[in-house]
Design a protein that fits this description.
The protein is mainly alpha-helical. The protein has helices at residues 2-29, 41-49, 51-55, 58-76, 86-107, 125-149, 153-167, 169-189. The mean pLDDT is 88.
Length: 191
């Protein structure tokens, strides 16, 4: 699996390098087509000036949040089949109920703050925050379980969250390269 992931990253990185002369070639050979070159002044400014903006965005935040949440869940033992602590399960369920109650209060009452301007759920801030909210709920339940079960919960929760992010590092690298490649294609084609 890691070998394929590394090969995909290398292939996408090679595309980034090859996109420079290829975009220039397309814009020079087909001037009426609307292709833009990455080696002209505007292209260089666009590529270098917005490189971090091309990588950053909601999907990267969701990916990092999910990695931290799954790391905390895996490390807490909340989803282990054997040896779960009943007090920890009760604490995690209480946190889950509290998050659900807060979500209901922020979306179900009249003039709820997470509804859109006409009072509907879709499209709204709540729908945009749903991936992050699911990750947060998993992380909070795992943290509550760990806090109820272990003697040093804070260090363990943060350590397992960081371990989850470290485990997802190849996927994050793949996302970063793929996101820039997508923006390069959009720029060169002129969409």
């Amino acid at each position: 699996m890691r070998g394929r992931l590394h090969a995909a990253i290398a292939l996408l990185a090679a595309f980034q390098v090859m996109s420079l002369p290829l975009s220039w070639l397309l814009s020079a050979l087909l001037p009426q087509s609307g292709f833009r070159s990455l080696v002209e002044g505007a292209g260089v400014r666009w590529l270098l000036g917005g490189y971090s903006e091309h990588m950053a965005g909601e999907p990267l935040a969701w990916l990092l949040s999910a990695a931290a949440a799954f790391g905390a869940a895996r490390g807490s033992g909340l989803f282990r089949k054997a040896g779960r602590d009943k007090n920890g399960i009760r604490t995690a369920l209480a946190v889950f109920a509290a998050v659900c109650a807060i979500c209901i209060l922020l979306t179900a009452v009249p003039h709820a703050p997470l509804l859109n301007a006409v009072g509907e759920l879709h499209p709204s801030s709540f729908v945009r925050a749903l991936p992050w909210l699911l990750c947060f709920t998993l992380w909070a339940c795992s943290a509550a379980y760990t806090a109820a079960v272990e003697s040093r919960p804070v260090e363990n929760i943060l350590g397992e969250s960081c371990a989850g992010i470290a485990a997802a590092a190849p996927v994050v690298a793949l996302y970063m390269v793929a996101a820039v490649d997508l923006h390069i294609i959009i720029y060169v084609v002129g969409w």
